Amino acid sequence: MKWIVTAALAVFASSTPALAADATADRYRAAMKDSRWTGPLLASNAETLPKGHLYTEPYFFDSISGGNHNPGTSGFYQYGLTDNWTVGVQPFFSWGTQAHNREFAMGDFKLLSQVRLNHFTPDRRVPSIAVVTNLVLPTGKDDHLSVSKEGHGSGSFAPEIGINVQQYFLFGNRLLRGRINVLHRFPLSHDVSGRSVYGTGPDFRGHARPGDKTSLIAGAEYSLTREWVLALDVEADFWGRTSVSGRDGDGPLVTERSPRSWNVGFAPAVEYNWSDRAGLIAGVWIVPKGHNMASSVTPAIAIQRFW
Predict the structure, then answer these.
(1) CATH no. for residue 87?
(2) Tens-place pLDDT, residues 243-281
């Protein structure tokens, strides 16, 4: 009899971790079912869309720096090419607010591609991880500018490569969703003619290469209720030297390099998700004065929709 009891206790002990794991998975499953998300203002998702589905998230913002307002719109328009591969486009438009520059202008567009390597599930709670490969297209005007007009582009093709990570954390019956993004952009050299966004004069002819850019973003969202979510991002951006070389008319060869720069900003926001397929986020991106960078405040609002 004793050996039967001992054996039963051994079986129970060996099954206890499995039972505990199943209970934790059930708690995650219930919490995920009771949470809806839009995503924070800055940090990108590490997940991909199911094959054949669309995702739209237009942004509207006003970047305020030095008392000047620079309103515009951007956003994400994506398609699930396969369950683990999402492609899309990120457009950019802006509105001029100065008396001599009141116009709707196109900025640089970005082609998006994301391949998911790992997927979080309640039973296998390892972070979702994705590789990002983007391409910035020089669709915005950057040179041949008249005296009264401003440029809204870089003029340069710019490949980007990065990693997105996403993880869920359970607090009671509610979830905290965390994200980390690392993205590096390396623009290519291009021709520049006349007055440009690089400060060249009307008779300039030469080349420019914008500095590399590295972005590090950490984002978190806490699900207060099924519909309401608090979000916060912290982003650090680092720019390399921009180089410009050429001749101003018949003058001597001109070579200039801008200094390196960086800044760190944060973006608190509130989300309201009225369904599993649609929601809204509103917040503000606050960037204190950085190294060779001016401070800025950018209120923003976005509406997301899953199709």
Answers:
(1) 2.40.160.160
(2) 999 998 888 888 989 999 999 999 999 999 999 999 999
